[in-house]
């Protein structure tokens, strides 16, 4: 029994989500090996070898910005060499793009967004945007999983580093059918919505795109990411990628501040696992108050600047 | 070069506005008397296919759905949006895993020879987010998941797709045929007009079975239990911003 964890990294640094993936792998009975693929594999391998619970690190040369197809080939080559029982990654955009391909080419089922490891073959995962939790048993010989990073603590540092070995990368196709063109990483000073520890979301109660700027000051004070309800997105108040909910992003920050959001089911599905939820809304019967730890029935146009001033004063 | 055919996968799911309830025996969720709709991401896939056809990049758009008898409603919706015809793989989807759905779609793709397959990035029932990737892998075609913008170039030989990735956007190039999965920002699906709904009733739906397509549906994953998520306990109402600040700072230790 052994588990292969696909490391994710950028700019030579190991991604935090990988630490959660290693923690999830540590709950399985086999040893945990980490595969690092890419142009900076050797630098990242040193960091991966120092993670608690990692028994071995395998590196493989690859493109600086590899496409899902080539990462899949690398994972399959590592699996062929190591004969793993479990192949696992975090449910990041890379993991979600690669792991189902790996599973399909091994002719096994994949389980995505796993939130709990019950045993070597039994896992819990949310369905219906978290409105139900399904416990499933994987019947195939090799289990291919992606884990939700917010559901597992990050693995810490090991007492001694694990050994690092390298494997030859498979020969790339002469004429690749897909290729990296460019990337445009969000330039926002704010944290990324999917991984922010504080999120402030606005809803239809803000009434206009201009009024959304009201949330900026609060977000500055709290170093928060900005989100929105589907209603606000549909009304054109803010970009679609701000959407939190069943059809948008599912988030679980330490603090979620819902401003002028009534709390439609599809919105609640995207944020109800947040640690602390605050709701500010003029309607005392809004469903958002049923999930809020702290509810304030007040006009958001007064409450937001007041709270911002309060935070500013406290920061001094 | 002749214009290509686009195949679009559509799934019938519980409407996104419905509060999903777990069955008392914990065997699954309540499906009786629940409003069903086309999966929102599949609707975006349909819209994108129509825009490519209207932009002169495709000759025909074919919608395909795998599901019980009622899945034909979803296919009619796709045809009301503009799909020229539909393929219905008649099968019970409960217990089916994305790998099997992908295999059925591989068989349909082999019959239809599309230049492009567009699927939603995930269905909002199982939230698996696997089928497009698996289909691409099994066909040996390139993939672009989580598309927020796409353009077809070189007379249908290539496509460029902007993808929503964790840190922002990434653009990839694909040689067609390829599989693309849609994210929310790709487009805003059109409404089906009444005349188009009427027209859709006359369009052709081919019916197939998994046996026709030679796909083995033996269980790969056993669902042991479906439970309600842990309930949040009711919180408190505060009466002022001062009190809210105090609770957050001292009780929740939120900052």
TrEMBL record, chain B:
Function in brief: The electron transfer flavoprotein serves as a specific electron acceptor for several dehydrogenases, including five acyl-CoA dehydrogenases, glutaryl-CoA and sarcosine dehydrogenase. It transfers the electrons to the main mitochondrial respiratory chain via ETF-ubiquinone oxidoreductase (ETF dehydrogenase).
Record note on quaternary structure: Heterodimer of an alpha and a beta subunit.
Location relative to the cell: Mitochondrion matrix
Pfam families tied to this protein: ETF (PF01012)
Coiled coil regions, renumbered to chain: none
Family according to the record: Belongs to the ETF beta-subunit/FixA family.
MF (Gene Ontology): electron transfer activity
Record keywords, A-Z: Electron transport, Mitochondrion, Transport
Domain Electron transfer flavoprotein alpha/beta-subunit N-terminal: 26-217
One term under GO cellular component: mitochondrial matrix
Keyword Transport: yes
Protein name per UniProt: Electron transfer flavoprotein subunit beta
Organism in which the protein naturally occurs: Diacronema lutheri
InterPro entries hit by this protein: ET-Flavoprotein_bsu_CS, ETF_a/b_N, ETF_b, ETF_beta_N, Rossmann-like_a/b/a_fold
Source species, domain of life: Eukaryota
One GO term (biological process): carboxylic acid catabolic process
């Amino acid at each position: 029994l052994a588990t292969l964890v696909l490391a994710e990294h950028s700019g030579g640094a190991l991604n935090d989500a990988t630490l959660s993936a290693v923690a999830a792998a540590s709950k399985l009975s086999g040893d945990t090996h980490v595969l690092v693929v890419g142009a900076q594999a050797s630098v990242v391998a040193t960091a991966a070898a120092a993670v608690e619970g990692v028994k071995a690190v395998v590196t493989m040369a690859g493109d600086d910005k590899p496409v899902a197809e080539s990462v899949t080939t690398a994972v399959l080559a590592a699996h062929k060499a190591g004969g793993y029982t479990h192949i696992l990654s975090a449910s990041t955009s890379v993991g979600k793009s690669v792991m189902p391909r790996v599973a399909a080419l091994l002719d096994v089922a994949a389980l995505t967004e796993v939130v709990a490891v019950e045993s070597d073959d039994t896992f819990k995962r949310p369905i219906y945007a978290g409105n139900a939790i399904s416990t499933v048993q994987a019947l195939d010989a090799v289990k291919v999983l992606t884990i939700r990073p917010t559901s597992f603590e990050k693995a810490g540092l090991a007492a001694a580093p694990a050994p690092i070995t390298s494997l030859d990368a498979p020969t790339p196709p002469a004429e690749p059918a897909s290729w990296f063109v460019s990337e445009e990483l969000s330039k926002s000073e704010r944290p990324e919505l999917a991984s922010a520890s504080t999120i402030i979301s606005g809803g239809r109660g803000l009434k206009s795109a201009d009024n959304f700027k009201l949330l900026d000051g609060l977000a500055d004070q709290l170093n928060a990411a900005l989100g929105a309800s589907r209603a606000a997105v549909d009304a054109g108040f803010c970009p679609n990628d701000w959407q939190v909910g069943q059809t948008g992003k599912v988030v679980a920050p330490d603090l979620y501040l819902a401003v002028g959001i009534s709390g439609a089911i599809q919105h609640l599905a995207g944020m109800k696992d947040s640690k602390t939820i605050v709701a500010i809304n003029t309607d005392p019967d809004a469903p958002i108050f049923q999930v809020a730890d702290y509810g304030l029935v007040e006009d958001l146009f007064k409450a937001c600047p007041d709270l911002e001033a309060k935070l500013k004063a406290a920061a001094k | 070069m002749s214009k290509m055919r686009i195949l679009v996968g559509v799934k019938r799911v519980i409407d996104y506005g419905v509060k999903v309830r777990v069955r008392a025996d914990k065997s699954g969720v309540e499906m009786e008397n629940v409003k069903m709709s086309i999966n929102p991401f599949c609707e975006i896939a349909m819209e994108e296919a129509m825009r490519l056809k209207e932009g002169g990049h495709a000759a025909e758009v074919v919608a395909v759905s795998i599901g019980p008898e009622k899945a034909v409603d979803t296919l009619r919706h796709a045809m009301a949006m503009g799909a020229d015809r539909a393929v219905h793989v008649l099968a019970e989807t409960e217990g089916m895993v994305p790998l099997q759905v992908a295999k059925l779609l591989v068989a349909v793709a082999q019959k239809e020879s599309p230049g492009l397959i567009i699927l939603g990035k995930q269905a909002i029932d199982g939230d698996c987010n696997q089928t497009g990737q698996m289909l691409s892998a099994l066909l040996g075609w390139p993939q672009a998941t989580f598309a927020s913008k796409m353009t077809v170039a070189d007379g249908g030989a290539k496509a460029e797709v902007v993808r929503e990735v964790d840190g922002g956007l990434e653009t990839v190039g694909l040689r067609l045929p390829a599989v693309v999965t849609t994210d929310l920002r790709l487009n805003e699906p059109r409404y089906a007009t009444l005349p188009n709904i009427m027209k859709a009733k006359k369009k052709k739906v081919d019916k197939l079975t998994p046996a026709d397509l030679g796909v083995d549906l033996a269980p790969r994953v056993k669902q042991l239990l479906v439970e309600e998520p842990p309930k949040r306990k009711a919180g408190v109402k505060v009466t002022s911003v001062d009190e809210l600040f105090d609770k957050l700072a001292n009780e929740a230790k939120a900052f």
